[in-house]
């Protein structure tokens, strides 16, 4: 268990800047997920924490100790790789013991640690097999076991589930979560899958182009994304970003959005600070509404008029597509709530509406 | 219907016959020299001069083989091929091991510890594969002279090691490229250093290409004549040079049976290596092409 501090860290290959002043701090026992598309610098950052890549500028501290110049083996970390990186010519047991052997751990202790790890991951029967004789899920387990026996201060996971099939991925996800709850070790986990980030993390750092866009608890990142990019990246289907205008009236702030039929939909009672209300009054804004922020309006409730174009039932709910503010909008509604071709009155949960500046795309508070 | 079926089967049988017939004929043609060599080496000299060259020996005798091995005259000394066979072994074993070992290390560095300009270095090493033997003869002679290794077996070991590094580096580099880099990174985090990773992880994984490299180097070095004849003299010659001297320098009647036996003795080790390790050779050459 340890704290991790990434302090204004930069990484450049020649003139190409991969990370631009990244600062992240997490507490002991936190589960940090670095989330972003490929090429956003998240794996580079993880490799820098591991000591596999040099730090161009800034500092990384584990438990308060600067590790910039420590080699990977002296950082007291363990890492699970995307391709599992099991040593092909060694058995599972030898794979797990390799690190301990190098560190000169006595045989009896190695044996005990291996047995404990094997028990925790239910792979005792696999110990004498070679990696080539294991399935993907089993290899994943062994890779985790190899990291586990070290009792490191910090676990690093580099997209560990992306090579597994869909069902196994969900199982292993739960397994990792269970492991974290049990061991309470600090974990840094890299993924491009926003569901993994939501389900596993205690802290999510959404990254793009070498910059942390938003760092917070997953629920906050979901409910109050820092900018349009984060809003679109987290959540599936993505948050609707609808061009509209803010109108300041005696009854409070009101949002106006153009309907395709020439009419205007109004949402009243949007939560916004007085300063922002004065600043944006009468000006265009981007209105962020999650698909589940819509619901079929009760009679008399204020609502937007939606001409439903397509309906996609998913089982637990129905996704309904319509046009608002000149853009396609998705609403997550109860099964069979609406039909294609119908004009429906949809209410909006105003507490969950997020506004963004149309130029900077940053959230308006 | 039935007859159609029958005629199709007959056509196929004739097809097979033609294929096998021509294959056997070609193989026989190809094996002809070997046949002549074996039969001639088992005949007595009188029989060779009196009878046909191609026929079976009237009475089988191994006299020519033992003469080639221990009595045949090479230049002025009549020691047979034995000492030169030993010379060749003393040259080929260290040269094969050294060139394979250095090639493995080179391949490891060029794939897993890339540095600025490592691709250029690899390109230059690769260039060495295309250097003809003749081009390096004079500079190599000068180097050997400066090192005081002229005319010695260690000198030949050095020449063959240096010349072989280009090929072995190519083999190992192309093999190690297929081994994922994450393996090295995992080992680094496990605490393994440069040589630990090399010996514990890379070398055990490289067994197939190691066999390829050894076979390749063994045949190249064992069969080499030019370096042997250029850089050694007299007692320190490898077997290829001694064979040449047996065959080309004779007093009196040409001893065809001894020549043939000597040639086969000289070719035997490479043959044995192929037979013993041949299947690993094919497996190693195709390894990495299909990912398991």
From TrEMBL, chain A:
<dbReference type="GO" id="GO:0140359">
    <property type="term" value="F:ABC-type transporter activity"/>
</dbReference>
<dbReference type="InterPro" id="IPR017871">
    <property type="entry name" value="ABC_transporter-like_CS"/>
</dbReference>
<dbReference type="InterPro" id="IPR040582">
    <property type="entry name" value="OB_MalK-like"/>
</dbReference>
<dbReference type="InterPro" id="IPR015855">
    <property type="entry name" value="ABC_transpr_MalK-like"/>
</dbReference>
<protein>
    <submittedName>
        <fullName>sn-glycerol-3-phosphate ABC transporter ATP-binding protein UgpC</fullName>
    </submittedName>
</protein>
<dbReference type="InterPro" id="IPR047641">
    <property type="entry name" value="ABC_transpr_MalK/UgpC-like"/>
</dbReference>
<dbReference type="Pfam" id="PF17912">
    <property type="entry name" value="OB_MalK"/>
</dbReference>
<dbReference type="InterPro" id="IPR003593">
    <property type="entry name" value="AAA+_ATPase"/>
</dbReference>
<dbReference type="GO" id="GO:0016887">
    <property type="term" value="F:ATP hydrolysis activity"/>
</dbReference>
<keyword id="KW-0547">Nucleotide-binding</keyword>
<dbReference type="InterPro" id="IPR012340">
    <property type="entry name" value="NA-bd_OB-fold"/>
</dbReference>
<dbReference type="GO" id="GO:0055052">
    <property type="term" value="C:ATP-binding cassette (ABC) transporter complex, substrate-binding subunit-containing"/>
</dbReference>
<dbReference type="GO" id="GO:0008643">
    <property type="term" value="P:carbohydrate transport"/>
</dbReference>
<comment type="similarity">
    <text>Belongs to the ABC transporter superfamily.</text>
</comment>
<dbReference type="GO" id="GO:0005524">
    <property type="term" value="F:ATP binding"/>
</dbReference>
<keyword id="KW-0067">ATP-binding</keyword>
<feature type="domain" description="ABC transporter">
    <location>
        <begin position="4"/>
        <end position="234"/>
    </location>
</feature>
<dbReference type="InterPro" id="IPR008995">
    <property type="entry name" value="Mo/tungstate-bd_C_term_dom"/>
</dbReference>
<dbReference type="InterPro" id="IPR027417">
    <property type="entry name" value="P-loop_NTPase"/>
</dbReference>
<dbReference type="Pfam" id="PF00005">
    <property type="entry name" value="ABC_tran"/>
</dbReference>
<dbReference type="InterPro" id="IPR003439">
    <property type="entry name" value="ABC_transporter-like_ATP-bd"/>
</dbReference>
<keyword id="KW-0813">Transport</keyword>
Automatic annotation (TrEMBL), chain B:
<dbReference type="InterPro" id="IPR000515">
    <property type="entry name" value="MetI-like"/>
</dbReference>
<feature type="transmembrane region" description="Helical">
    <location>
        <begin position="260"/>
        <end position="282"/>
    </location>
</feature>
<keyword id="KW-0812">Transmembrane</keyword>
<dbReference type="InterPro" id="IPR035906">
    <property type="entry name" value="MetI-like_sf"/>
</dbReference>
<keyword id="KW-0813">Transport</keyword>
<comment type="similarity">
    <text>Belongs to the binding-protein-dependent transport system permease family.</text>
</comment>
<feature type="transmembrane region" description="Helical">
    <location>
        <begin position="17"/>
        <end position="38"/>
    </location>
</feature>
<feature type="transmembrane region" description="Helical">
    <location>
        <begin position="193"/>
        <end position="218"/>
    </location>
</feature>
<dbReference type="GO" id="GO:0005886">
    <property type="term" value="C:plasma membrane"/>
</dbReference>
<feature type="transmembrane region" description="Helical">
    <location>
        <begin position="153"/>
        <end position="172"/>
    </location>
</feature>
<protein>
    <submittedName>
        <fullName>Carbohydrate ABC transporter permease</fullName>
    </submittedName>
</protein>
<dbReference type="Pfam" id="PF00528">
    <property type="entry name" value="BPD_transp_1"/>
</dbReference>
<feature type="domain" description="ABC transmembrane type-1">
    <location>
        <begin position="85"/>
        <end position="277"/>
    </location>
</feature>
<keyword id="KW-1133">Transmembrane helix</keyword>
<dbReference type="GO" id="GO:0055085">
    <property type="term" value="P:transmembrane transport"/>
</dbReference>
<feature type="transmembrane region" description="Helical">
    <location>
        <begin position="89"/>
        <end position="108"/>
    </location>
</feature>
<keyword id="KW-0472">Membrane</keyword>
<feature type="transmembrane region" description="Helical">
    <location>
        <begin position="120"/>
        <end position="141"/>
    </location>
</feature>
């Amino acid at each position: 268990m340890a704290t991790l501090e990434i302090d204004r860290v930069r990484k450049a290959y020649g003139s190409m800047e991969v990370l631009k002043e990244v600062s992240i701090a997490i507490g002991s026992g936190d589960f940090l997920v670095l989330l972003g598309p490929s090429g956003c610098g998240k794996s580079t950052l993880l490799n820098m924490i591991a000591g596999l890549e040099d730090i161009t500028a800034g500092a990384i501290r584990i438990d308060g100790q600067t590790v910039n110049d420590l080699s990977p083996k002296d950082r007291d970390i363990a890492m699970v790789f995307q391709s599992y990186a099991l040593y092909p010519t060694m058995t599972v047991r030898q794979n797990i013991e390799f690190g301990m052997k190098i560190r000169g751990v006595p045989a009896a202790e190695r044996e005990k640690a291996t047995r404990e790890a094997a028990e925790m991951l239910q792979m005792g029967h696999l110990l004498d097999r070679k990696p080539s004789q294991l399935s993907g899920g089993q290899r994943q387990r062994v890779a985790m076991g190899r990291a586990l026996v070290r009792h490191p201060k910090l676990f690093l996971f580099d997209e560990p589930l992306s090579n597994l099939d869909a069902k196994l991925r969900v199982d292993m996800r739960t397994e990792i979560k269970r492991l974290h709850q049990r061991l309470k070790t600090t974990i840094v986990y890299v993924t491009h899958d926003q569901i993994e980030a939501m389900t596993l993390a205690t802290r999510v750092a959404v990254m793009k182009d070498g910059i942390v866009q938003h760092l917070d608890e997953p629920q906050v990142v979901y409910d109050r994304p820092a900018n349009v990019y984060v809003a679109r990246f987290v959540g599936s289907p993505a948050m609707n970003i609808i061009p509209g205008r803010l109108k300041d009236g005696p009854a409070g702030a009101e949002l106006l959005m153009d309907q395709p039929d020439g009419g205007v939909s109004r949402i009243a009672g949007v939560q916004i600070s007085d300063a922002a209300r004065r600043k944006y009054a009468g000006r265009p804004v981007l209105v962020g509404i999650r698909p589940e922020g819509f619901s079929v309006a009760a009679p008399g409730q204020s609502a937007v008029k939606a001409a439903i174009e397509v309906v996609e039932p998913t089982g637990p709910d129905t996704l309904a597509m319509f046009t608002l503010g000149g853009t396609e909008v998705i609403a997550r509604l109860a099964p069979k709530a609406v039909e294609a071709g119908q004009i429906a009155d949809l209410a909006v949960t105003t507490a969950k509406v997020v506004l963004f500046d149309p130029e900077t795309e940053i959230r308006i508070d | 219907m039935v007859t159609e079926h029958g005629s199709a089967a007959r056509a196929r049988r004739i097809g097979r016959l033609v294929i096998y017939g021509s294959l056997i004929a070609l193989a026989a043609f190809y094996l002809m020299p070997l046949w002549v060599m074996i039969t001639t080496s088992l005949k007595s000299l009188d029989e060779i001069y009196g009878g046909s060259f191609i026929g079976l020996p009237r009475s089988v005798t191994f006299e020519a083989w033992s003469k080639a091995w221990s009595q045949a005259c090479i230049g002025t000394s009549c020691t047979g091929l034995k000492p030169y066979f030993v010379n060749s072994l003393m040259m080929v074993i260290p040269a094969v091991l050294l060139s394979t070992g250095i090639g493995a290390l080179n391949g490891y560095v060029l794939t897993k510890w890339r540095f600025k300009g490592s691709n250029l270095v690899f390109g230059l090493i690769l260039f060495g594969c295309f250097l003809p033997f003749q081009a390096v003869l004079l500079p190599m002679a000068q180097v050997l002279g400066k090192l005081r290794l002229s005319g010695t077996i260690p000198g030949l070991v050095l020449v063959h090691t240096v010349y072989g590094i280009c090929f072995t580096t190519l083999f190992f580099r192309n093999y190690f490229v297929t081994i994922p880099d994450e393996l090295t990174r995992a080992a680094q985090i496990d605490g393994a250093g440069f040589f630990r990773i090399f010996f514990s992880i890379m070398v055990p994984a490289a067994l197939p290409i190691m066999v390829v490299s050894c076979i390749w180097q063994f045949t190249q070095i064992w069969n080499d004549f030019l370096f042997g004849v250029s850089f050694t003299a007299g007692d320190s010659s490898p077997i290829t040079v001694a064979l040449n001297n047996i065959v080309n320098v004779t007093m009196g009647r040409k001893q065809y049976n001894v020549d043939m036996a000597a040639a086969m003795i000289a070719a035997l080790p490479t043959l044995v290596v192929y037979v013993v390790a041949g299947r690993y050779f094919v497996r190693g050459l195709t390894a990495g092409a299909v990912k398991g």
